[in-house]
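#lab-general

N.A. 3:47 PM
ok so I finally got the sequence cleaned up, no stray characters, all 615 residues accounted for. can someone with queue access submit it? mine expired

B.Y. 3:52 PM
send it over

N.A. 3:53 PM
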Amino acid sequence: MSRQTTSVGSSCLDLWREKNDRLVRQAKVAQNSGLTLRRQQLAQDALEGLRGLLHSLQGLPAAVPVLPLELTVTCNFIILRASLAQGFTEDQAQDIQRSLERVLETQEQQGPRLEQGLRELWDSVLRASCLLPELLSALHRLVGLQAALWLSADRLGDLALLLETLNGSQSGASKDLLLLLKTWSPPAEELDAPLTLQDAQGLKDVLLTAFAYRQGLQELITGNPDKALSSLHEAASGLCPRPVLVQVYTALGSCHRKMGNPQRALLYLVAALKEGSAWGPPLLEASRLYQQLGDTTAELESLELLVEALNVPCSSKAPQFLIEVELLLPPPDLASPLHCGTQSQTKHILASRAGDAAEHYLDLLALLLDSSEPRFSPPPSPPGPCMPEVFLEAAVALIQAGRAQDALTLCEELLSRTSSLLPKMSRLWEDARKGTKELPYCPLWVSATHLLQGQAWVQLGAQKVAISEFSRCLELLFRATPEEKEQGAAFNCEQGCKSDAALQQLRAAALISRGLEWVASGQDTKALQDFLLSVQMCPGNRDTYFHLLQTLKRLDRRDEATALWWRLEAQTKGSHEDALSLPLYLESYLSWIRPSDRDAFLEEFRTSLPKSCDL
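B.Y. 4:20 PM
back already:
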C-alpha cells in the first residue's frame, strides 16, 4: 500500500513537472513569435497555466520532495508576470512570502514565524537551508527575485542584509552592495532540474548591472563624477543591453566632461551614438561638452540633431519574458543628465544659444501653438520657461535682429491672450502679496510686454509712443508691492525671492529706458527724476547709478555728482554684485541698457575730481 502511494505521488510529481516544462517552452515560443497578438496570447496562456499549477501544488501540505518543483514554478510565475506587467507589485512579494512559509512548514517552524516579516522569514529559511540541500538551487533563484523586487523598491538595506546572510557573513562588516552582489555565488543548475525561464546566475548578472548603473548615475547626479566612474564601468562590463549601454556610455561621457577630460568624454559619446538609436541623451551631452569647450558651431549642430532625433518615434524592442536590467532601473529623473526633455524644450535651448535666435524662436512658437492650448502658469523647473516667457524671449530676439515691427506683432498677440486678466491685476498682486495664490507671474509678463513694446518703438524712432509704453509698464509695476516677509511661510520662499528680484529689475529697466528717452529729447530734468527713482527702486543695480551720475554731470550739479561717485566707489570696493536668477528675456533687456562706456566715463570723472578729493 505504501509502495502504491509512493508510486502515485511520483506519478503526480512527474505530471506537474511535465506541465511546468511545457509552459516554460510555450513562453519561450511566444518570445520568439513575430506576431504581437499571438505572442501576447501565448504568454498570457502560459501565465495562467503556471498560476493553476502553483495553486495545485500549494493546495497540498508542504513536502520536501515536491518543494524544488513548487519553488521553481513560483519563480517562473513571478518572472513571467513581472515581465508582462513590466514591473513588480505587492502580489509578487506575497508569492515569495508564501513560498518561504512553505519551506518552514516542512521544518515544523510554523508557530514562531507567524510574527515575522519578509526579511526575518528569509533569515529563518536560509538558516534551515543547510538541512535542505535539494532546495538550494530553487532558493537561490527565489533570492534573485527577492533582490530584484527590493532593488526596484529601493530597499537597499534589506537587500544588503539578505545577501550578507546568503554569503555566510553575519558580522555586517560589508555594506558594499556591489561587492555583496559580486560575492554571491549561485550553485550550478542540475541538468535534470525542472525548466526555468531564468536561472539564479542570470538574475545575479541582471542585478549586478542594474545596481552598478543606478549607483553610478546617483553619484553623477549628486556631483561625484569620480566616484560614479567605477560603478558605471562595472555596469558597462556586465550583462548590459544596448539601450542601457547607450545610457551608461553617455553617463561616462558626462563624468569625464565634469572632470575636465573632454577628449575621453567625446570618445564615450561617440560610442554611445554607435550603440543604438536612442540618440537623445548622447547628443544633449555632446552639446554641453561643446558649450564647455566654447565650440558654438558644434554645440548648435548637436542641438539641431537632437531636435531631429526627438522627432523620430522611439522604436523599442518587445521585452523579453525575463527579469531584464531595464525593469530594475529607476523612473526618469528630471535632475539626471540623461534626461533630454521634449522637442520643444530642446528647440528652446537651441533658440537661446543660437546667433540667429529670432527664426528659432518663431519655429518654437509655431510648434508650441500647434501642439496644444498653452497654459499660462508659473514656469516649471527645470524643464524650461512657460509659453508667455517664450513669447517674451522671442520678442527680444526679434528686436535684437532689427525686426521691431515683428516684435510688436508678437507682443500684441501675447497681450491679447492675457487681456482677460487685466481687470484682475490688482487682485492678483494682492493675492500674491498675501501668499494666498500663485506668485504674480502674469502681471510681470504683461508689464514686460509693454517694456519690450517700448523698446521696439525706440528702434522704429517713435519716441512718444515708446515713452507711453514705458509709462504703461511702470503703471502696472507700481501697483505691485513686494511680498511681506512676515507672510513668508505661506508661499515658496525661493520663488518669492525670484519674483521680487524680477519685479525690482523690471522697474529699474523701465525707469532707465524712459529716462534715456527723456535724455534723447533733451529733457534732462525729467530723466533725472526717473534715474533717481530707479536708484531707490533697485539699489543693487550699478547701471542706475551710472545713468544718474551722467545726468547730474550734464546738469552741472557737481557736488551731488561727486557724492554719488564716492558712493559708487564704496559700493564697488565693498561688495560684488550678487548673481541674480532672472528670466532670460529680462537678462537680455538689461544688457541693452547697460552702457558700454561705463568704466571709461567713471575713470574720466575720477580724474576730473579736485586733487584733494582724489584717491
